[in-house]
Amino acid sequence: MLQHFLIAGRVEAGCDEAGRGCLAGPVTAAAVILPPDFNNDLINDSKQLSERQREQLRPVIEREALAWAVAMVSPEEIDRINILRASITAMHRALDQLSVRPEAILVDGNRFFPYQDIPYTTIVKGDGKMLSIAAASILAKTHRDELMRRLDEEYPQYGWARNKGYPTPDHRAAIAQYGATPYHRRTFQLLPQPTLFDGMEF
Asked: Among 65, 72, 66, which residue's Cα sits nearest to residue 19?
């Protein structure tokens, strides 16, 4: 059972990101403020849900939240500022768009940069503990997946509709065959490093 609030009666925004470990596409973050009486037993860490469950929950969260927002940081910006800063920047941009100002921010993970003068709490595995963070994880994941399906139409050979840009064997095989696209993160290891013995005969 997920916890509704860290402190009851406080306006808390849950934040989470999706796509941090991907080789292609943006990193996406969401910020969600849920009403005090919000209840949905299906909501959980997005990684524990099926794609169909996430897609069913997305409109429920967007309809019933007091405020929500999603923001992205591009592959080019990820390469420029690194993935940790990009993930937190995406969270800040989502918070910028909220129509309700939170009194506190709950962040999945153990790293965050201060946002304005609003107190924040980092919570390791927070998407499996706090309802607002779980809701944010669902929005971040579904919005990013939707974008990767659109990008798949532009570059179908990489299988992004299936792998969403993650380093699966078929994705790496496509990079080896076709090279990188403008949507790939150039500072990431797109292909496995050859070992010392590759190509040697024994």
From this structure: 72
Predicted pLDDT of residue 112: 98
- What confidence score (pLDDT) does residue 194 get? 63
Quote the pTM value: 0.93
C-alpha to C-alpha distance for 113 and 101, rounded to whole angstroms: 17
Q: What is the CA radius of gyration of the chain?
A: 18
Measure CA of the first residue to CA of the last residue in the chain; give whole Å.
57
Q: To the nearest 5 percent, what fractions of the chain are helix, strand and coil?
A: 40, 20, 40
Q: Are 72 and 90 in contact (CB under 8 A)?
A: yes
Residue 33 and residue 11 in contact, taking contact as beta carbons nearer than 8 Å? yes
Q: Where are the alpha helices (DSSP H) in the chain?
A: 51-64, 75-81, 83-97, 131-154, 160-163, 169-178
> Could you read off the pLDDT of 104-119 as tens digits, one per residue?
999 999 999 999 999 9
d(CA 129, CA 117): 25
**How many CA atoms, within 13 angstroms, populate the side-chain half-sphere of residue 149?**
7
Q: What is the pLDDT of residues 40-79, one digit of tens each?
A: 988 987 788 999 999 999 999 999 999 999 999 999 999 9
